[in-house]
From TrEMBL:
InterPro entries hit by this protein: DNA-bd_dom_put_sf, MerR-type_HTH_dom, MerR_fam, TipA-like_antibiotic-bd, TipAS_dom
Listed PROSITE patterns: HTH_MERR_1, HTH_MERR_2
UniProt cross-references to Pfam families, sorted A to Z: MerR_1 (PF13411), TipAS (PF07739)
Domain HTH merR-type: 2-71
UniProt feature coiled coil, ranges: none
Official protein name in the record: TipAS antibiotic-recognition domain-containing protein
SMART domains noted in UniProt: HTH_MERR
CDD domains attached to this UniProt entry: HTH_TipAL-Mta
Keywords: Activator, DNA-binding, Transcription, Transcription regulation
Lineage summary: Bacteria, Bacillati, Actinomycetota, Actinomycetes, Kitasatosporales
Amino acid sequence: MAWSIADVARMSGVTSRTLRHYDEIGLLAPAYIGGNGHRYYEQAGLLRLQQILLMRELGLGLREIAAVLADQVDQVAALREHQRRLLAERDRLDVLARTVARTIAELEEDEETPDMGKINGPENLFTGFDTTRYDSPARTQWPDQAQRSAQFAATLTEAETERLQREATAAIVRMAEFMQAATPVTDPAVQAEIDAHYQGICRMWTPDAAAFKALARNYVDDAQWRAAYDQVAAGLAEYQRNAMVIYADARLS
């Protein structure tokens, strides 16, 4: 049995345009093209599309997915590995759900504008967030630097990771305080915070202006990162991005 590209788009939620793009880059070819010029897919194609979508859900880029599929021999074994990763992701999301529930409970104790300094353990705001899982524009464009970053993270002890997380959360809170005080992102104090942020990144790799701006955009463009920042203070993700762009133009260009 074969399904038209429109049928596959309807069943999978993937647009016909995306399916054609997958064909163009050699990721998912149709079984055949009909006399009407339409693409048709058979069961093997649907199973391959399922694998592609699973890996997209797990944060892999298209080039990484193509490499995985090219090396794949045993389809059942591959699906078992996808299942394992999905179960791990489910567990991570459970942790995130508990993190948000705890934050809601703490904030509801004070219906006025929250004072982050009064929230017990503000570092707990980000429990469950995996900063290595995002295929940000910078990671996609600069894979060597992303690899060095991952290698650096692998050398950290659990205590060091927790310390860095606490420091990062404290920096986010300070940025929120600047924003709530209507401090311009060009203010020297704000830019000093961004410089500290940049120097922290430089422990792993050294982004140039374009890379730092790409990271800045990710705080707004990535839904989970934006939610993480904006749950501290509405609009904080954009404030952080704008401050980083100013820093990149002034210090890294």
